[in-house]
Amino acid sequence: MKSFIISTSLLLAAVSSTLAAPLSNSRIPKLRVRPRSLLANATLPIAEDPNDPSAKYIVVLADDEKRKWADVFDEMGFNTNELKDHKDGFYAFGASSDDHGFRTFALEDGTSIQTFGTAMRAFTMTMFQSEAEGMKELPNIAVLEKDFPVGTGLVEESSYEVASIPDEPVNITEYSVSGLDKRQQQGQVVQQNGAPWNLERISETRAVSLRGRGVTQLAFNYAVDSNGGTGVDVYMVDTGINVNHVEFGGRAKMIFSAFGQNNLRDDHFHGTHTAGTVGSRRYGVAKNVNLFGIKALDSNNRGTGASIVAGMEAALAAHLRRVREPNFIGSVMSMSIGGGGSQAQFNVLQRMAQAGMHVSISAMNDNKDACSAFPGGYSRQLPIFNVGATDPSDGKASFSNFGPCVNIHAPGTNILSTNSKDNQSSRVLQGTSMACPAVSGVIALEIVKNPNLRRDPRAMIQHIQSLAIRTQIRGANSAQIMLNNGVKR
Ligand SMILES: *[C@@H]1O[C@H](CO)[C@@H](O)[C@H](O)[C@H]1NC(C)=O
Ligand SMILES: *[C@@H]1O[C@H](CO)[C@@H](O)[C@H](O)[C@H]1NC(C)=O
Ligand SMILES: *[C@@H]1O[C@H](CO)[C@@H](O)[C@H](O)[C@H]1NC(C)=O
């Protein structure tokens, strides 16, 4: 429970920073609120009004709305009672100072309002369409949208063989800088023998040549700066991380769960795998980063618009606290998740850009236009990476989305990384979910090497695109560039 204590204080600190004096006068009209008994008991044999259906909504407050939650709801016309004991509450942390954080407010009919957010305050509730339409017009509401299901679109594993993985120690050999690279400005370049193929690919200028090596074997070589992204914070918005996995060497911590405080872990496996590609010792691109686990997807690898926004907001809030600490280097949000578009997601990403957070998102796995999968599709408006996946021959992975909203490619098939089921094992997965964390890792490397880019996501994108290898990604019609860490160029 150590991680829980750490994270609570983390969020509390962020909370206190955003407190402000409540608005003194209220000019906000009351909402017309319908009797809510239909929502309270769906088993009642009363048909819902087909002209006014109910649904769950995500509602984000305007930035200048600083008053207590109870006052906000009261003014809207809802008679609420805050639940002191909400063990079934949606969000993990009781990080509630006066009015921020994760709280549950009961309505008279037994339904409830769940609040979340510290840097950006929001809530979810089930309401009638007529109520939602009224609420959307209120001046203290920034976003109001229906909640929706979200996932990672994991690619089925049936299409390839998983080879048995030899349990060998990692062989990292030091090379002199001059032997490898002329442009390298600082630091030592080390070579890891016994790396997975995706790491070799992002440190070499050409496609991997298997030469009898199995693509899922630890038989490849990875050249990387020895500092390995030291001290950079990488927020993994995913299913959680098995922080006890030996490959994380104690650098991984869970800081948030959208599924209760007893769920600060990875009860799927997707999140432990993606975290391993960012920063594990053996499978990781940047072997010295801090990995912060944000559980926004459940044990079935599924979440909702609300759980994703809450997770992203938790990353932003933690970043805003960390930037004020002396050992802060830089932050990256890595998010191998996608689905329908959401204004709330857009708003958090926009704030991240303003706050100097770097973001990498998976382009998703439907072999279609990546501009229709979000939040990656926001790459046209916001400084975020939207990552397409390639196979070992540098072709577009058959499943990868493509098109103008993809702005870089990285290896995404047959990717070996950490598994969540115990503290030692690995597994092979494929998807743009596996390509996105490789980009997050390279961002961490470049944050350390380029202090001037630490809080400049737009310039970082240009820099990493310039390091990338210009090559034909067969089957992709944009972003003909392959992620590269630049050590051999
Ligand atoms: C819902 O209605 C049924 C049938 O009237 C009743 O048995 C049940 O207790 C009600 N549940 C709640 C939560 O009110
Ligand atoms: C580590 O790699 C170097 C260089 O390839 C090799 O000479 C050495 O034998 C390897 N050591 C082990 C323990 O495999
Ligand atoms: C993994 O490590 C944790 C912490 O040391 C331990 O409690 C847990 O039992 C370990 N899991 C397995 C499967 O060995």
UniProtKB/TrEMBL annotation:
InterPro entries assigned: PCSK9_ProteinaseK-like, Peptidase_S8/S53_dom, Peptidase_S8/S53_dom_sf, Peptidase_S8_Asp-AS, Peptidase_S8_Ser-AS, Peptidase_S8_subtilisin-like, Peptidase_S8_subtilisin-rel
Catalytic machinery residues: 238 (charge relay system), 270 (charge relay system), 433 (charge relay system)
Highest taxon in the source lineage: Eukaryota
GO biological processes: proteolysis
Residue stretches making up the Peptidase S8/S53 domain: 229-471
Signal peptide (residue range): 1-20
Transmembrane regions listed in the UniProt entry: none
Keywords from the named record: Hydrolase, Protease, Serine protease, Signal
Molecular function per GO: serine-type endopeptidase activity
Similarity section: Belongs to the peptidase S8 family.
The protein, known as: Aqualysin-1
